[in-house]
Inverse folding.
């Protein structure tokens, strides 16, 4: 039996009626303006481990959040119960909060003229008519491919097949109402390999809006095994300053740190190392960073942001220069700048890439470290100081020599961004952030 609703338009209409009801109740309660978002999702997930079914899940979730404004006073409430009584209680709670909060002149809905006027079809809804038995078979196929790859694969953390559909509606007192369905499917696997007394684990996965665009289960299992085996016989390296490659599956973390540093909330609080860097050089001139919220089938695509503001494709960094910040309605008012339609985040982030393959980056680096895993939260967004536990591979003469573990890498993000030598063309990793591997001129490596 499929877990995906058969009539998405009917479900969206039901949720749209709920949003309309919430806005009407808020108005009757005296709110000068209001906004509400309602979502519903359902799906199935099957996990196997060591050839046996471990868990089967049927998921069905609802959620509603609303914000009301009494002038510049704001109150919010949320619930997972969409019954009329629960909705009324949530509206009452939000209004009571707003009546007793302090006024903030920057509070309020986004400007009416910024609302999305016409909603395009971004092709986000592709249900996977997958039975539980079929999901189990695919998970078994994935795990078996990993476990049978090499006799050193000694254990497994399991393989999971997941499929879900979500329905999202947002509306506000500007008479804006946006609604869209979306699907997301994934296959993942994690195994453990042993060599002597040492053991290592790694994983791989794929995710997509469209089931036919997922990598096949066998290839995901084999890649999981290859990644795990490559980590065997890890050792530490000597302390020093060396070039570092952040492999393409960990490089998105650097891009996310950059985006965090130019968010409006960090800027008006003056809690970022990128303060007052607008129209300044923040990367080498070969770097461009863009977002495309309107990408068909994109994993984070949406034609409007969480405030109802129309989104658009834009270059955040051009030729290394920071063009604009990442702002929503509130932060743009605080900073007296133009709203960039980023309530809810940046969508489908992308950095320009060179023609260099990963092997080309190794050769250009010569001797240094490839980072494949990062641990800890050692990123200070106020100063840009960066210090994290790491694992990966040691490189000499442009060739990987051995795996590396139990080290720390350190630098400063502002310097790391400017010291970026190249971004590889190996950007075929799953996810909504597209980047190849980053080669950075020098970082401090703390090992032996």
């Amino acid at each position: 039996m499929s877990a995906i609703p058969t009539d998405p338009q009917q479900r969206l209409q039901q949720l749209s009626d709920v949003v309309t009801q919430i806005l009407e109740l808020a108005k009757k309660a005296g709110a000068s303006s209001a906004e509400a978002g309602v979502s519903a999702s359902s799906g199935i997930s099957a996990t196997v481990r060591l050839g046996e079914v471990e868990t089967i899940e049927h998921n069905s979730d609802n959620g509603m959040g609303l914000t009301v404004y009494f002038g510049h006073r704001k109150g919010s409430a949320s619930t997972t119960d969409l019954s009329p009584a629960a909705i009324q209680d949530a509206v009452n709670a939000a209004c009571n909060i707003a009546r007793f909060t302090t006024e903030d002149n920057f509070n309020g809905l986004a400007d009416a003229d910024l609302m999305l006027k016409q909603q395009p079809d971004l092709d986000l809804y592709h249900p996977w008519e997958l039975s539980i038995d079929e999901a189990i078979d695919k998970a078994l196929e994935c795990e078996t491919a990993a476990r049978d790859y090499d006799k050193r694969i000694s254990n497994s953390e399991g393989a999971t097949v997941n499929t879900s559909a979500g329905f999202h509606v947002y509306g506000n007192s500007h008479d804006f109402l946006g609604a869209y369905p979306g699907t997301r499917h994934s296959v993942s696997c994690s195994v453990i390999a042993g060599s002597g007394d040492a053991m290592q684990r790694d994983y791989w996965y794929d995710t997509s809006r469209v089931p036919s665009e997922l990598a096949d289960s066998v290839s995901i299992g084999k890649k999981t095994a290859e990644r795990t085996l490559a980590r065997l016989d890890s050792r530490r390296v000597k302390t020093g300053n060396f070039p570092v490659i952040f492999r393409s599956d960990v490089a998105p973390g650097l891009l996310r740190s950059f985006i965090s540093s130019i968010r409006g909330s960090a800027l008006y609080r003056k809690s970022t190392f990128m303060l007052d860097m607008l129209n300044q050089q923040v990367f080498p001139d070969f770097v461009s960073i863009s977002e495309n919220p309107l990408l068909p089938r994109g994993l984070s695509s949406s034609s409007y942001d969480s405030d109802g503001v129309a989104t658009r494709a834009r270059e955040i960094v051009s030729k290394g220069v920071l063009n604009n910040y990442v702002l929503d309605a509130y932060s743009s008012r605080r900073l007296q700048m133009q709203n960039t339609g980023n309530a809810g985040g940046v969508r489908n982030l992308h950095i320009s890439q060179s023609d260099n393959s990963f092997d080309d980056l190794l050769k250009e680096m010569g001797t240094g470290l490839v980072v494949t895993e990062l641990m800890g939260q050692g990123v200070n967004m106020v100063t840009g100081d960066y210090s994290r536990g790491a694992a990966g591979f040691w490189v000499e003469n442009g060739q990987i020599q051995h795996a590396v573990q139990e080290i720390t890498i350190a630098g400063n993000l502002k310097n790391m961004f400017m010291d970026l030598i190249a971004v590889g063309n190996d950007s075929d990793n799953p996810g909504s952030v597209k980047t190849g591997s980053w080669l950075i001129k020098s970082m401090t490596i703390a090992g032996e």
Remarks:
- Confidence is low (pLDDT under 50) at residues 1-5.
- Residues 8-28 form the longest helix (21 residues).
- The two ends are 56 Å apart (CA to CA).
- The CA atoms of residues 45 and 162 lie 4 Å apart.
